Amino acid sequence: MVVWAPFGMIFRAISWSIAILILANIRSALFFMSELISNLYMIALNILDYYFLGLVGLGMSFAITYIIYVVHIYFVCKKYLQFEFEIKLLSLSCIQIIYAIISVGIFYFCDSFYFISGLISLLSSILFSLYILIQRINLKKFINSKFSLS
Question: How far apart are CA 68 and CA 88, in angstroms?
Fold first, then answer.
C-alpha cells in the first residue's frame, strides 16, 4: 500500500496546486463541484480496489485517483480559467514521475536490496529538486542577502 504513496503524492501536489487557482479566482461553487465529483470517483475507486486487491488496492487507488484528478482539474481550469501548463513544469513533473516509477519498480522487482536502491532513488530525486530550486530562486544570493553582516 505504502509503495504507491510517492507515486500518488506527485500527482496530488500537481493537482492541488492547480485546484487552488479556482479558489484564488473566487470560484468557490466551481471548486466545490469539482471536489465533489473527484471525491465520488475516489470513493468508487477505493471500494473497487479494496474489494479486488485488499490494502494494496487502496494504495493503487490513491495513485489512480490523483492521476485522474490531475486530468480532471486541468480541464476544469483550462475551460474556466484559461490555464495552461508551462513546459518547465511538465519536464520537472515528468522527471519526478520517472523517479517514482523507478521506486515502485525497485520495490516490486528487487527483493533483496530494495531499501538501498530506493534510498539512492530518493536521494537523487531530492538532490535534483534542490538543484532546480537553486536555479530558480538563486538561493546563494538569497541567503547572502538575508544573512549578510555588511
Answer: 21
pLDDT of residue 149: 52
Q: What is the pLDDT of residues 45-99, one digit of tens each?
A: 999 999 999 988 998 999 999 999 999 999 999 999 999 888 887 888 888 888 7
**SS3 (DSSP) at 121:** helix
Location of C-alpha cell 487507488:
61
Are 132 and 92 in contact, with CB atoms under 8 Å apart? yes
CA distance 61 to 5: 10
Cell of 10: 506527485
For position 116, what pLDDT does the model report?
77
Cβ-based neighbours of 15, under 8 Å, separated by 6 or more: 66, 69, 70, 72, 73
Overall pTM surpassing 0.85 (yes/no):
no
Contact 87, 106 (CB under 8 A): no
> What is the distance between the alpha carbons of residues 103 and 7, in angstroms, rounded to a whole number?
9
CA–CA dist 3, 9 (Å, integer): 11
- What size, in residues, is the chain? 150
d(CA 99, CA 105): 10
